[in-house]
Amino acid sequence: MTELIGSRVMLRPLRPDDWDGWREVRVRCRAWLERWEPSPDAGSLDPALDREAFRSRCGAWDRQRHFDAAYGFGLFLLDGQFAGEVSLGSVQRGPFQMGYVGYWIDEALAGSGYIPEGVVLVMQYAFDALQLHRLEAAIVPRNMSSRRVAEKLGLRDEGTAVRFLQIQNVYEDHIRYAITVEEWRERGHELVAKFVNH
């Protein structure tokens, strides 16, 4: 199992036995998190309320990882506390060699620097281990917390994609941030030094 270990956080794929910790955060932070997320499919069970739905969610991430389609990680503090998730989704090979970075954190831990550390670990994994060429993060303009992470990491603002993705049943504009492997080779060591080995 892939584990990405920093100085304050550890990333690894979620397992069915992570449900209690994951559920506690998702239920407590529901209003804070869901306003930025796509609505679940009609009739689907809520993995925060149904253990089997969470098990299925873990299985879906495992299958996507197996097929090199997406890589989802739980974000844990080094004492084992579940803190959030960082993902590398929609991996495209062929001429693209790219993927999308996504992240969320327990509201009680927001602003603590755990997400930037986790995102740098995933960027390092994507560029160095998976040999991707480009990473993007698409963020709703009013989501200032998520935008701050992208800006702190020096991701390039490539403009706004109009009505890009459906969030809570409304197609929302998203600012598209990106970094390529050439930029990572230039300053990835600085990001690791600043956010991972601090």
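The above is record 1. Record 2 follows with the same two-line structure.
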Amino acid sequence: MKHYDIIRKPVLSEKSYSEIANKKYVFEVAVNANKIEIKEAIEAVFGVKVQKVNTVNVSGKLKRQGRTQGFTAKRKKAIVQLTADSKAIEIFENLA
């Protein structure tokens, strides 16, 4: 997998905003990516040093429309902790 295939998009929520000050960033990543691949992709794309990666598998929610029902797609989130001497990720600088 390529680095840009692993990182899908940043997760922008109240909880993720509060962790930016601690150099923790949340991304939606490919479901089949592991922690090592996520770490390498973040370091290559943003040019930062990653200390630790935590992942969370999020199940799809049950949605209904009339009589039919189904589940939204499952996804995977990665919480990335940068090292203390690493620079911040640019796309989050205006948000903190």
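The longest helix spans residues 35-46.
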